[in-house]
Design goal:
The chain has one domain: Nucleic acid-binding proteins (OB fold (Dihydrolipoamide Acetyltransferase, E2P), Beta Barrel). Helix content is about 5%, strand content about 25%. The protein is built from two helices and 15 strands. The longest helix has 6 residues, at about 210-215. It is globular.
C-alpha cells in the first residue's frame, strides 16, 4: 500500500491524502456473508442521543468476519483481499478444503493464493496461522487474541497492531499489548501469528470535514464555545478559561486524566504492568 498526496488545487486538497492499495481485489462482498448496517445516529430506543457525534455517513454493509477461526486442521486458501468500510484493517475471503467460505481479518503481507491453517495440536510456521498461545514460541508477534477461551478474538484487531508473546507461566501467557500494558491471558486462548494488515492507515490525512461526515462522524464542539446551560465550561464574554479547578464532561463529571477503570475489577490481578500515559 502507498499514501497518495493530492496536488494543492484547493485549500482542502492541500491537506488531503488517501491510501492506495494494489493488493486489494476488485470484487464485491459475498452476499451470503454480508448484511445491511442499520444506522441509529447514536440514539437509543427513546430517540435520545446517548452517544454524541454520530450520524449520517455513507450506506454500508456489515461483513460477517470470523474472529474465532475454529475450523481446525483444515487448510484454507485466500481468494480475495478486500476493503471493509467497518474497520481500518483489510479482510480476506478464504475458502476451506471442504468448500466453505469465510471472511477473516487479514494479516500484513497476506496475498491472494496464500494458504493458512488453524490448529489446536501442532504449530505450523507461517503468517496468519492461528494456534493456542501455549503452542506459539515466545517473542512471536500476534494479533486477534482471545481473552476468554472460545469467544473469538477481542483485542489487537486494528490496522497495523500486534502484541508480543513474552512467556508461558502456569495456566497463563504473558503478553505485551500495543499500549505497553503487560497482562496475563489463559494459555489456551487462540491468537493469530503476525501483524494486522494496513499499517499505513495511521498516516492518512483526512484533510477536510466532509470526509469525516462520510464516515458517519459529526462535528465535535468545544465546551467553551457553548452556553452555560449546555456545558459546565460554557459562558463568559470573549475568550475565557473554563473557570474550574479541573475539566468536566457535559454532565459535570471529572474529565481528562481521571481514572475511569472500576476499582477492584476482577481482571486487575491479570494486569502486571499498566499502560503508560501518552504525552501530548
Amino acid at each position: 500500500m502507498a499514501i497518495k498526496i493530492y496536488k494543492p488545487t484547493t485549500p482542502a486538497r492541500r491537506q488531503t491524502s488517501v491510501l492506495i492499495s494494489d493488493a486489494n481485489s476488485k470484487s464485491k462482498p459475498v452476499k451470503r456473508l454480508r448484511m445491511i448496517k442499520k444506522r441509529h445516529g447514536g440514539r437509543n430506543n427513546q430517540g435520545k442521543i446517548t452517544v454524541r457525534h454520530q450520524g449520517g455517513g455513507a450506506k454500508r454493509f456489515i461483513r460477517q468476519v470470523d474472529f474465532k477461526r475454529d475450523k481446525f486442521d483444515i487448510p484454507a486458501k485466500v481468494e480475495t483481499i478486500e476493503y471493509d468500510p467497518n474497520r481500518n484493517a483489510n479482510i480476506a475471503l478464504v475458502v476451506y478444503a471442504d468448500g466453505e467460505r469465510r471472511y477473516i481479518l487479514a494479516n500484513h503481507g497476506l496475498k491472494v493464493g496464500d494458504k493458512i491453517i488453524s490448529s489446536q495440536t501442532n504449530f505450523v510456521r507461517g503468517q496468519g496461522n492461528r494456534f493456542p498461545l501455549h503452542l506459539i514460541p515466545s517473542g512471536t508477534t500476534i494479533y486477534n487474541i482471545e481473552i476468554e477461551e472460545g469467544l473469538g478474538g477481542k483485542i489487537v484487531r486494528s490496522a497495523g497492531n500486534s502484541a508480543t508473546l513474552m512467556i508461558i507461566e502456569g495456566k497463563h501467557a504473558q503478553l505485551k499489548l500495543p499500549s505497553g500494558e503487560i497482562r496475563k491471558i489463559p494459555k489456551n486462548c487462540l491468537a493469530s501469528v503476525g501483524q494486522v494488515s494496513n499499517p499505513e492507515y495511521r498516516n492518512i490525512r483526512w484533510g477536510k470535514a466532509g470526509r469525516m461526515r462520510h464516515l458517519g462522524i459529526r462535528p465535535t464542539v468545544r465546551g467553551k464555545a457553548m452556553n452555560p446551560v449546555d456545558h459546565p465550561h460554557g459562558g463568559g464574554e470573549a475568550r475565557n478559561s473554563i473557570g474550574l479547578k479541573h475539566p468536566k464532561t457535559p454532565w459535570g463529571k471529572p474529565a481528562l486524566g481521571v481514572k475511569s477503570r472500576r476499582a477492584h475489577k476482577k481482571s486487575d490481578k491479570l494486569i502486571i504492568n499498566r499502560r503508560k500515559k501518552r504525552r501530548k
